[in-house]
Amino acid sequence: MLINFAQFGLLFLSVITTIFLGLTVFFKDPNKKVNIAFLLFALSVSLWSFTNFFVDVVSEKYLLLAIKAEFVFVAFLCYFFVIFARNFSTKQGTKKTTDIFFIVPILIFSAITIFSDLIIVGYKTFPGGIDVVYGALENNFYLLEILLAVYLGLFGIIPVVYKYIKSKGLIKKQLQFLLLGIVIMVVFATITNLVLPNFVDKSEQIFTILSRLGVYSTLFFVGTTSYAIIKHRLMDIRLVVARTVTYSILVTLIAVFYIGSTILISNTLLSTTTTNGQLTLYTVLTLIVAFTFQPMRRFLEEYTDKIFFKGAYDSNNLLSGLTKIMAETILIDDIAHNLLKRLIENMRITRGAFVLTDAGKIFVSETQGYKEEPKFSEKDIFSLQALDKDLVFEEIEEGPAKEMMRKLNVTVVIPLKTQVDHVGILLLGEKASGEIYSEKDIKVLEIFAPEAAISFENAKSVEKIRRFNITLKEQVERATKQLRDANEQLKDLDKLKDEFLSIASHDLRTPMTAIKGYLWMALNDRAGKIENPALKRYLDISYASSERMISLINDLLNVSRIKAGRMQMIFENIDFKQIVDQVFAELASKSTEKSIELKYEGDPKVPHVIADKQKMAEVLQNLVGNSLKFTPEKGKITVNVKPSKESGFVEVAVSDTGVGLSKEDASKLFEKFARVEQSYKSAKTTGGTGLGLYITKNYTEMHGGKIWVTSELGKGTTFTFTLKVFDKAVLDKMSAENQKKEVSAAIPQTTTSMAKEAVVNTAK
Predict the structure, then answer these.
(1) CA-CA distance, 472 to 484, in Å (whole number)?
(2) Which of 79, 135, 152, 294 has the smallest CB count inside 10 Å?
(3) pTM of the predicted protein model
(4) How far apart are the first and last CA of the chain?
């Protein structure tokens, strides 16, 4: 019986396309149960279509087996559709026990059909086709068909319908076309294979045509499924489908060319008629030839990739690269720029933007691919952020969100959030290829978003610190400049103060010396004997005050010259015992008044030292005089001179049995105008300028030594300083360095004899 060539072409196209879709879905992820079930369902549909066709072309020897196989494949088709539908409609999929439960009745039915005559006994041939002869279960056959339909609907179609009702957006559209294809395929096959043939005479050719139209019902399933794949990313195999388009077209063209050429040559040149067996043989040979083009397919793929798959990328490599950027970059602007650049380049996106928020405001905005820099309003950004979900323009319903995306000219919105708070949003434009975003694209963005949010949150803290540092730096620089200006003013004022003190002290010293001289002459009866005791007491007080005033003036002059670097030193070889004897002699009267013992304890082997004799006498006088002030009556002051532990130095210690001082007061002793009356509780009435120890410290350091104090309240105080041991080379070096300084002569101490001489000269 000759089969129309157009019928065979449609059958071949539907079978090949169905198998192709099944294999494509399977190889997208071979480990997914839903993908495996879809492949088996597609193979069952294809096998059913082929057996339905082969019933008309196979020899009588295998005709009964072909008829039984047709019934068996229908049963398996229903079973695999149920497994696919249940796995597709639930995230967790079906359990093995459930699969076994569903397969048992199918296996029983198949075994009975193939290996017994209970369902099909044989067949009868008619001019219009073939009629099946049923066995003992003939009366129950329609019941089996009803049960199969219930099984298919209850466990297969209803779960998909239920998921369709519950779903929204893209998934709902996917299910819509999937259900449409399945329903049309089932209804069309049922009507053409089971219903209409019962109303037609079996002897008519129309009977065969109607009974075989059901095999083309798979075209409805293939068409709607393909549309769902291309338009709505069903099974996310759009790229795979596109990749094999060239090869599929190639195989189809080869098949059509070979079969058409064979039929044309046979009918035209050879004047022979093509039988169904020959047509089948040609088909098989065509498939064999087509599969020999595998090397050619691989060769062509290299070129089709350049044309059709410019947007293809390795998601693992992309995510790895993005993670590396986040791990190696610190500044938030750099992170946003580099991440956006990598995303746009790899996913072939026309434009994109990171908009990061903080404290109700836009914190950072990074854009790429825009012709003009967009201006994002905080209202729009926070409105999209508040939706708290991924938005794909093609998937969402018309409403405020879609209108906002249309206003911002974006196709995808991905929220960036941590477990604690929202960080911002990622806005992406359409893809450069014009395709919609695939499930793979959205999955990559979903994996990337939380990591990016954490990275941005950390970088935000760094950015805040950086901005704070910039602000702080500006404030510090401004404050530093103000302080520098103020310091310069203070330096000028301090210089003016020193100049004033120097001039004032110098001008005051001469009249004060004269006053002291006249008071001395009056007290020593040079102008007549003073008979009035009260007057004598007044003159004594005035003389003591003038002496203190002259001492203060001399101290102020010395401090001024020390600060100005004009203090001149005359270094020489000194026996320090001589200085001790001189100071003890000058202070003998004061020590006798308070019954204080002045004692010298010197090592006989102590070497000579390098010192300015006058300045060092002043140092020792300041220290011993200080001890006299704060040592109670019948106390003791000791000057100890010995070699220092530090090589090349002699150590001089002035110890007393006075009131002592605290550690806090000890740290302030060598400052200008330092007063520690709080420590010297027993000597509150004692006077002093507060400059003596400051001058002493500076004189000691000018000699290349150092000074320190040790004390304990109630037990006394020890001042210790060091001087360099005499060495001719060291002395010459110190003298040479001192001569380089621009100094004026040191101010000599004002003594009683100097005052008396000044008065005499004035009288003359």
Answers:
(1) 17
(2) 294
(3) 0.39
(4) 166
* CA 579 – CA 574 distance, rounded (Å): 8
Q: Which H helix or E strand runs over 269?
A: none
Q: How far apart are CA 482 and CA 440, in angstroms?
A: 61
pLDDT of 329 over the 90 cut:
no
Tokens 């015992």 — which residue?
577
CB 220 within 8 A of CB 185: yes
Contacts of 586 (CB under 8 A, 6+ apart): 621
DSSP-derived 3-state class of residue 293? coil
Provide the edge-to-edge strand list for the sheet that holds 361-368: 361-368, 352-358, 422-428, 412-417, 391-392
Three-state DSSP class for 272?
coil
pLDDT in tens, 284-326: 666 666 655 555 555 555 555 555 445 567 888 899 999 999 9
What per-residue confidence (pLDDT) applies to 671? 78
User: What value does the mean pLDDT take over residues 683-703?
Assistant: 74
722 touches 644 (CB < 8 A): yes
Is residue 571 within a helix (H) or strand (E), and if so which, with residue range?
A: none
Over residues 163-186, the mean pLDDT reads 77
As given in the structure block, the two tokens for residue 131 are 């009629």
Whether the pLDDT of residue 551 is over 60: the answer is yes
Burial status of residue 190 (CB atoms within 10 A of its CB: 0-12, 13-18, 19 or more): middle
Please return the burial class of 390, using the count of CB atoms within 10 Å of its CB with bins 0-12, 13-18 and 19+. Answer: middle
Give pLDDT, residue 574: 92
| Cα–Cα nearest to 438, from 234, 241, 246 | 234
pLDDT > 70: what percent of the chain? Answer: 72
Model confidence at 415: pLDDT above 90 = yes
State yes or no: pLDDT of 29 exceeds 90: no
Sign of CA dihedral 638, 639, 642, 645: positive
Out of 653-667, 682-696, 705-719, the most confident range is: 705-719
What mean pLDDT is predicted for residues 101-123?
A: 78
Per DSSP, what are the bridge partners of residue 649?
Answer: 724
Q: Could you give the CA distance from residue 522 to residue 540 in angstroms, rounded to a whole number?
A: 10
Is pLDDT above 90 for 438? no
Rounded CA separation 618/697 (Å)? 11
Helices (H), 397-438: 400-408
| pLDDT grade for 230, boundaries at 50, 70 and 90 | low
pLDDT at 578: 92
Residues 6+ apart with CB under 8 A from 761: none
Going by the DSSP 8-state scheme, the letter that residue 234 receives in this structure is G
Q: How far apart are alpha carbons 672 and 689 in whole angstroms? A: 9
Give residue 702's Cα distance to chain centre.
57
DSSP 695-750: HHHHHHHHTT--EEEEEETTTEEEEEEEEEBP-HHHHHHHHHHHHHS--BPPPPPP
Of 234-243, 527-536, 620-629, 754-763, the one with minimum mean pLDDT is 754-763
* DSSP 8-state class, residue 686: -
For residue 198, what is the DSSP state? G
Most distant CA atoms of the chain, gap in Å: 177
Token digits of residue 491: 């330096």
Instruction: Please check whether residue 536 is in contact with residue 573, taking contact to mean a CB–CB distance below 8 angstroms.
Output: no
SS3 label, residue 585: helix
Query: What tokens were used for 144?
Result: 């089996």
Confidence bin at 609 (pLDDT 50/70/90):
very high
Q: Which residues contact 588 (CB under 8 A, 6 or more apart)?
A: 598
Q: How far is CA 207 from CA 62, 130, 195, 196, 705, in A?
A: 22, 9, 11, 9, 130
Q: Are 636 and 702 in contact (CB under 8 A)?
A: no
